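Moderator note: this is an archived Q&A kept for reference. The question asked for a predicted structure of one protein chain; the sequence and the answer are reproduced below.
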Amino acid sequence: MDAAIRWLNEGGDIDIAASASCIAVSPAYEATTFDPGAGNTITTTNGLLALYEIGQLKSLWDKFLSTIACRYDFSWDPIFRVLNSWAYPRTLLPSLKEEIHADTRQAITEVAVAVVETLARMAQNKSAVSQRLKAYIEVTGANADYQINELIALFCPDTYRQDWRASSKRRDRKLSKLASKWHTRPPEQVVAEVTTIAQEALQAGIRTYPWIESFYGKLSRLVKNPVQWCRCLIHQNASAEYVAPFLQRAVADGKPGWPDVALACLEKPEFQSLTVRLASEEPDLEPDLLSGALALVVHFPNNVEELCRRGLVPASVLRRLLKHENCGVAIAAAKGGGEFGTERPRTRVYPRSLAPCRDSARHEGVVHRASLQS
């Protein structure tokens, strides 16, 4: 603990210091020993610390939390991971029984309650952290209040004692309502607000990606100008999966400006897969866009294989993929038709006119694998 705090005070990374400190305040221990008479025998022992040692950890918690209380730039995830051991000690020692280990359970509970109450005070105005802390408050019986913003609750799922399937359906309906309400707002405002929610959730160790992706997918079907939303998301360096539904909608509706967006995606590595997928599905792209995408397709062979397997690649594009100068791309296109794999395509992928190209790619694949084996 002292080494971690010293590291932090000397300008060290706070997340590294927090992770190290959380190891120090864990009520668990683990030891691994080797049998000197049997080199292949390893014995691992784990469980809870002794009663007097558990009591001593309270002062370490106090030192740790007082050090980071004035900081706002650390991840709470290591804290919640170690807090699991305090809130659910049976996960460390399943044989822990009330009648036999009453003193140990009492010591753990006292420390856990004090720590949770301190964390709750630190989590004021941090809705995502409070969302995750809520379960620990309830299970420990701590005397602590929490406030959770409605939008944070929507994008940060709380699965504690909930039916996940029913909860997901309710959340999906609420996201649809939010999309209907927000689709007329300026994209800059919406993207900024959603990005803030995602950043706060990330700090609390909560995964928001599936719900944000779902929200943007619903929003893309309602907005008037998907090209404007594409540009805004790309400018904010959002996930490519968030941009995809807006770009697909823009292409499908023939919205002016979508080729410029696709070209802009080619210039940023994190968005290149969008244009590659678009080029693989659209037969009539502009020559510059198609050439640029096919030049980059070498980096996304799995995308090529998936699209070919699903029968989504037009014959004109498929011909170019099968004749691609990169052997891996041609093999992926041929493999997508089920030629090498065990899966069969859902639809007929290869027109008869492309059979020679397919067979050539298949032959190149055999030769390529033989050269690797030799």
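Archived answer notes: Residues 338-350, 365-374 have pLDDT under 50 and may be disordered.
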